[in-house]
Hints:
Lactate/malate_DH_C; 12 strands; L-malate dehydrogenase (NAD+) activity; L-2-Hydroxyisocaproate Dehydrogenase, Chain A, domain 2; 338 residues; oxidoreductase; three-stranded antiparallel β-sheet
Amino acid sequence: xxxxxxxxxxxxxxxxxxxxxxxxxxxxxxxxxxxxxxxxxxxxxxxxxxxxxxxxxxxxxxxxxxxxxxxxxxxxxxxxxxxxxxxxxxxxxxxxxxxxxxxxxxxxxxxxxxxxxxxxxxxxxxxxxxxxxxxxxxxxxxxxxxxxxxxxxxxxxxxxxxxxxxxxxxxxxxxxxxxxxxxxxxxxxxxxxxxxxxxxxxxxxxxxxxxxxxxxxxxxxxxxxxxxxxxxxxxxxxxxxxxxxxxxxxxxxxxxxxxxxxxxxxxxxxxxxxxxxxxxxxxxxxxxxxxxxxxxxxxxxxxxxxxxxxxxxxxxxxxxxxxxxxxxxxxxxxxxxx
Length: 338
């Protein structure tokens, strides 16, 4: 806690007083509300700007009554997006529609792609130097969309654009801890690739403490981690998707970013970022964070035969999802120019 207090006292870019402004876009949604609650408790945030297209005022009023030092302001509708973003050092984007039973992340594409593109245009206009954390699914496509928007605006900084894949790591830690009978906080396991189905690749062979499973059990565990989102959607039976666990994971990743921004060294978290680790332009891996954003995508490391097979099999699907996002952004740019 003392370390956090020292970091919080340092002056950060885009700060309000001595602490940064964070904008949460989609704050009234299923992920946005619990995420706003968690961010309100951060000692590293000065101002929390809550934005959504409706119902933001009530969420902001509710959150603002919590007894922490974070100042909360609510913004509603496109006409107030610029005010919400102005001066933000970090922008977190959970905006979009949730998955429903029978839907894949890809089914969300046409709706959420447009939402993310619009919000990215706002970021490029009002806070082009901000760290941007994209939660809106499908992340494998929405991150490339945001990148294309920033490129077109001349504001693209690949070190400051992140697809939040922390939920895959959180799930892997939880499920492994159940098997090992340990505290999940004592488990470390990298999850690489992307953030949908088979593109999620937990490297179980690199788990700490070591996890010894026969191949069939390892495959079952890998499949559970990959399909955990569907597990939640089905369990909620039409009442929602993974909102609470996603909010927890996003808050954890945001905290890591804030600590790195404040100058803490050695901060490493998995994220979907611009990467040269593979032939693909974006890839999720452990990333070393620093004051300027993603300093390095760390090597994937040795994989066992099961992991290598899954890695080889998922590259084509991930490439297609990335390209789908790029093509959407390009079509949108052409339409806007006509």
